[in-house]
Amino acid sequence: MSRIGVAFDKARAEGRALLVGCMPAGFPTVEGSIAAMTAMVEAGVDVIEVEIPYSDPVMDGPVIQKASDIALAGGVRTRDTLRIIEAVAATGAPVVTMTYWNPIEQYGVDAFARDLAAAGGTGLVTPDLIPDEADEWLAASDAHDLDRTFLVSPSSTDARLAMTVAHCRGFVYATAVMGVTGARAQTSDAAPTLVARVRAVTDLPVGVGLGVGNGAQAGTVGGYADGVIVGSALIRCLLDAPDQATGLTALRALSAELAEGVRTR
Hints:
Radius of gyration: 17 Å
């Protein structure tokens, strides 16, 4: 079983959902992102999702876009991301990577899979890669024993949903809303139905992302999903802070609130 699968099983045994916290690599700096992700783990985040910054992030809302722009302006590269993954994996928390496909093609698909596995990464979440076009990634992930997480949405047909989850390994990413990332005032009404549809065709854990911003929302989503995925709200802690120390304090506080939320749903 993948390390992500083990983490989901551990959370399930504790009667709760898994908490996944997301942060772009290299934001606000390479070392700053390592410190931020380490703080998230120490505050109770179960799994870290490291996003490779990209110049055309079609699924990301303004918060993640701004953070990624800062990372790119600072000169972060894919090799820096691998170093960050290695450092965060050393905390003992599973680390999954979210990436658009172009950086992986530029790096070399098999070479990236090899280096990701060597760094301690568990696999990839690929928002703009569909299974129909993923033959090279399917082969590389098999060769290097990596998970692969494709996305499903409320608009996915039953046939499309079944085909997509059949190619997933580790967990399935269910996008709770149609649109881009970002914390919202209310969680999606469509998400519970989508999770039920996924569970009808797979035993893989289902993580729900897009829209969670506080502990109460994390508890609500954790009531029907196996995993709660939070990005923008955590990133905003650093974006809105006047300095890194203040940002890390806010980040630890929100991480702890979210962790408490999935434990007291």
